[in-house]
Automatic annotation (TrEMBL):
One Gene Ontology term, aspect cellular component: nucleus
The reaction(s) this protein catalyses: Hydrolysis of DNA containing ring-opened 7-methylguanine residues, releasing 2,6-diamino-4-hydroxy-5-(N-methyl)formamidopyrimidine; 2'-deoxyribonucleotide-(2'-deoxyribose 5'-phosphate)-2'-deoxyribonucleotide-DNA = a 3'-end 2'-deoxyribonucleotide-(2,3-dehydro-2,3-deoxyribose 5'-phosphate)-DNA + a 5'-end 5'-phospho-2'-deoxyribonucleoside-DNA + H(+)
Residue span of region Disordered: 286-377
The organism of origin for this protein: Papaver somniferum (Opium poppy)
Designated name of the protein: Formamidopyrimidine-DNA glycosylase catalytic domain-containing protein
Amino acid sequence: MPELPEVEAARRAISDHCIGKKIKSSIIADDSKVIDAGGLSPSEFQASLVGKTIVAAHRKGKNLWLQLDSPPFPSFQFGMAGAVYIKGVAVTQYKRSAVSDTDEWPSKYSKFFIELDDGLEMSFTDKRRFAKVRLLKDPTLKPPISELGPDALLEPMTTDEFFQLLRKKKIAIKPLLLDQSFISGIGNWIADEVLYQARIHPLQVSSSLSKEHCETLQKCIKEVIDKAVEVGADSSQYPSNWIFNSREKKPGKAFVDGKKIDFITAGGRTTAYVPDLQKLTGEQAKKAALEPKEQTSDGDEDEENLEGKKGNKSKPKKAQTKKPPAKRKGKATSDNDNDSEDDEMEEKKVAKGKQSKAKVETSDKPKGRQSKNSKKT
């Protein structure tokens, strides 16, 4: 799903090509699941944009919004597969959301389309319909943006601030990093990467981390995000020593720098880590030493579902081994990283419902009653 680097790449593309231009026409999809215009119809949404000039493009965490010369402003919550396209401009094509150049334009998956006065066209697409497009007077004053913590790129904490905040958190470090009210912009792959680079176990209790560990983790967050943003979220340019490059391989075949990658569940998310380098410390290490080791499960798995529930203060449970997220072919990630929680949970409910329906339809039919002709006379 799009995380901070992907959304920042979209923001920069808009800033480079659309600022100062007037909106000539607009097409808003008639899709109430994605479009939230505060009671306005798609045609009214369109009318509110036409004739306006794009003044700036802003981002916080994994949210993007366009500042026009007068409100209201359109905002975009990318969900699992939201993507920005500018015709003729190379914008990062997120995994599972790429729209082919040969597809119709605007794409049938387009939810928000504008044509500018110089002929340039921009579209926000969403194949999986978990994104949100809103029309707001001030996006920063409304959820989800108003509920976000400091942006991981634009509003870094000092080491002391970071350390003091972690000391108060009794939950595992992985789900804490995914909590968008704590730090905004970090999703599943970034959390795995920074913890690997910092050599911190995903289930280590946040409050147990030393100041040195906190300083290292903070440094790794900055380095990973800076690099991903620098290359425009082009994963082919990520360093070869990143766990990112192997996190979707099958158990037993996933390695980084010669070290085996295992998969567990942390904060409800499939989590890639290197046991040889990321070890539990303190009391957690002592308890782990007394517990029997579990083997990593085999096979593929659907995309992980939950990302760090806000307010989850339960103590980390014993690590459960998990399969890595399976790659999906031909498929296109409010913005609390609880995005993916709601998105994946909804997907699974739908799938479960379909399975239940199928079982009913294919179950054995009840035995019929005897026909009248078979009754005794």
